[in-house]
Design brief:
By secondary structure, this protein is α/β, with parallel strands linked by helices. The chain has three domains: about 120 residues, Rossmann fold (3-Layer(aba) Sandwich); about 230 residues, pyruvate-formate lyase- activating enzyme; about 55 residues, Nucleic acid-binding proteins (OB fold (Dihydrolipoamide Acetyltransferase, E2P), Beta Barrel), CATH 2.40.50.140. It is built from 13 helices and 19 strands. The strands form five sheets. Strands 2-1-3-4-5-6 form a six-stranded parallel beta sheet, with helices on both faces. Helix 1 links the parallel strand 1 and strand 2. It starts with a strand and ends with a strand. About 45% of the residues are buried. Bound molecules: S-adenosyl-L-homocysteine (SAH), iron/sulfur cluster and FE3-S4 cluster. S-adenosyl-L-homocysteine binds next to strand 13.
Length: about 450
């Protein structure tokens, strides 16, 4: 086994997925060769997520699985949010791990790798003291058509349930000129879709004298020649401005899709969560979005069973879901997390009650999606072709609203992947649409 082969598995959000693209590029630059399985690799890396307990457990399960391979020339590394949160405790829980590094330390990866190559068994990168977001020219993007760009790292909010401020550190925005330069290079390389990333993407504040806010940056990225779609995630409701909606209304390159996590429909719970907005303030933003002529698809995140959430609070969440009619939703049972304020809150909701509330929310949302998707039958929608489902004999496309639209097309062998095509929607399910192309 060559000593310079590596395998990386990524858990968690798009920020982590993109971080892994940067890490892979950095490793290749250092002379490492990617291999297809952990068995083949000398260096096995896990880029981890700590947002809920279940996510955190995944990495420890993986490490357990490969325990017997340590000492047989394999080296294990834990990156990302669990690494930052647990730090050197990881060496105790999994003694065969040699590298522990959080996302704020990736700029030091080349040096950390040199230490590992020298046989060092306890190498760490755990400082959060950086005022920059990690950037590299060597990013290995997984998708040849859609490219992620980090515009802001970290989080300065302090939601009572959330580990992110502890795992990713304070907020730091990239200079607008550097973001624009990256967008132009990506367009020249043939990417047609750009996704701007940040834990709170719309809290972006240009540190350079240009001083752009997020809406300005979004509008400018939408003007880059060759870019046909721009998305962004995740938006914090408190920093979500009318100018963002105006930018989307003005330019069809900016996708008609916004993810705006609400967490709860009860202002009382929102206050306990320290979300910095009330239900009414959130609904005002939804009204701006609904007033846009672009027919903007809305999605959200919901937490059920936050400590002290009463039946009345929960009923308000259901009522908000009915009022907004989201196009899609991620819903979670509250999971107590290390370091967070909510750990000390009283009136924990029992697990079976959280489960009951989760199922109710999901059922409610499913009915809304069935109804909303059915209403789109007969529409012609443009998709970016992402792949082919050979078993079903269908192409897989994605609409500007970020919905999967599977479709038939007479071309089956010549690759349509990466093209933009109009598709007639003929069928709809709760989670996807189906259709036909070309449209007669
Ligand atoms: N920055 C984004 C959220 C990022 S985390 C925002 O502020 O909206 C993604 C989602 O995970 C959150 O929106 C929340 O719904 C969920 N989440 C975070 N911490 C959680 C916890 N302790 N238990 C359950 N869900 C949680
Ligand atoms: Fe977590 Fe809140 Fe920051 Fe989002 S805004 S990452 S939920 S602390
Ligand atoms: Fe998870 Fe870290 Fe993202 S905790 S959700 S990988 S920021």
């Amino acid at each position: 086994m060559s000593s310079k082969t590596f395998y990386i598995e990524t858990f968690g959000c798009q920020m982590n997925v993109h971080d892994s693209e940067k890490v892979v590029g950095t490793l290749i630059r250092q002379g490492y060769e990617p291999v297809a399985t952990p068995e083949q690799a000398h260096l096995v890396l896990y880029n981890t997520c700590s947002i809920r307990d279940k996510a955190e457990q995944k990495v420890f399960n993986r490490l357990q699985q490969f325990k017997r391979d340590a000492g047989r020339g394999k080296v294990f590394g834990v990156l990302g949010c669990v690494a930052q949160q647990e730090g050197e405790r990881i060496f105790e829980r999994a003694p065969h791990v040699s590298l522990v590094a959080g996302s704020a330390s990736y700029a030091q990866l080349p040096q950390l790798l040199v230490q590992i190559e020298a046989g060092n068994r306890r190498v760490t990168g755990l400082s959060l003291e950086t005022d920059e977001a990690f950037e590299t020219d060597f990013t290995r993007r997984d998708n040849p058509h859609r490219a992620y760009i980090t515009i802001i790292e970290g989080c300065d909010k302090s939601c009572a349930y959330c580990v992110v401020p502890f795992t990713r550190g304070p907020e730091r925005s990239r200079a607008s000129a550097s973001i624009m330069a990256e967008a132009r290079v990506l367009a020249e390389q043939g990417f047609t879709e750009i996704q701007l990333l940040g834990q709170n993407v719309n809290s972006y504040r240009d540190p350079s004298p240009a001083g752009w806010d997020f809406a300005t940056l979004l509008a400018r990225v939408g003007e880059v020649d060759g870019i046909r779609r721009v998305r962004f995630t995740t938006s914090h409701p408190r920093d979500f401005t009318k100018e963002i909606v105006d930018a989307i209304s003005a330019n069809p390159v900016l996708c008609n899709q916004v993810h705006l996590p609400v967490q709860s429909g009860s202002s009382r719970v929102l206050e306990c969560m320290d979300r910095l907005y009330t239900r009414d303030e959130y609904m005002r933003r939804i009204e701006w979005l609904k007033a846009s002529p672009r027919n903007i698809a809305l999605s959200t995140d919901i937490i059920v069973g936050f400590p002290g959430e009463t039946e009345a609070d929960f009923a308000q969440t259901l009522d908000l879901i009915d009022q907004v009619e989201y196009d899609s939703m991620f819903s979670f049972k509250y999971s107590p997390r290390p370091n967070t304020a909510a750990l000390t809150f009283e009136d924990a909701i029992p697990e079976d009650e959280k489960q009951r509330r989760l199922l109710i929310v999901q059922e409610r949302q499913r009915a809304i999606q069935i109804r909303r998707n059915a209403a789109r039958i007969g529409n012609v929608e443009e998709v970016l072709v992402e792949g082919r489902n050979h078993a079903l004999g269908q192409w897989i496309g994605r609409t500007s609203q970020n919905q999967t639209l599977n479709f038939t097309h007479p071309d089956t062998d010549a690759s349509l992947i990466g093209r933009y095509l109009p598709v007639l929607v003929t069928r709809a399910g709760p989670n996807s649409l189906a259709g036909e192309s070309p449209v007669m």
